[in-house]
Amino acid sequence: MALLTSAAIKGYRDYTMRRIAYAKFKVGSTEYKTNIESVKVTDSGTVEIAFKIELASGSGTVSQISLYDTDNQLWLSKTENLQMDSVAEGFYYVVQLDIAEVTS
């Protein structure tokens, strides 16, 4: 039996959408800050946060992505292995968050 109403779950989704401020990705030992391109809730209720991963020059491997809130606090960190082989190449990265009540 669910304890939270659909309005409460929507409130958590809306809060997440307002609080996510920017992303970072790591190539080698260097972190790069990037803007959030979009934050939306899908028809199924998943919060999708999208951003671009691009290098101004050179190549390398993206080893980590991170999301930060409006207070510069880390909200999400994920290990990756994305090859960036040329300056013309980049990634449009989407993080999907399912916010739901789980009862045991």
Number of helices: 1
Main beta-sheet annotation: 6 strands, antiparallel
Number of strands: 6
Cα gyration radius (Å): 16 Å
The arrangement of helices and strands along the chain is: HEEEEEE
Low-confidence sequence ranges:
none
Shape: elongated
Q: Beta-strand percentage?
A: over 45%
**How do the strands line up in the largest sheet?**
5-4-1-2-3-6
| SSE class | mainly beta
Average of pLDDT: 92
Helix content: 10-25%
General description of the model:
With about 100 residues, the protein is mainly beta. It has one helix at about 5-20; strands at about 20-25, 30-40, 45-55, 60-70, 75-85, 90-100. The protein has a six-stranded antiparallel sheet. Strand 1 and strand 2 (about 30-40) form a beta hairpin. The longest helix is centred in the N-terminal third of the chain and has 14 residues, at about 5-20. The chain is elongated, with a radius of gyration of 16 Å. It starts with 5 loop residues before the first helix and ends in a 6-residue tail after the last strand.
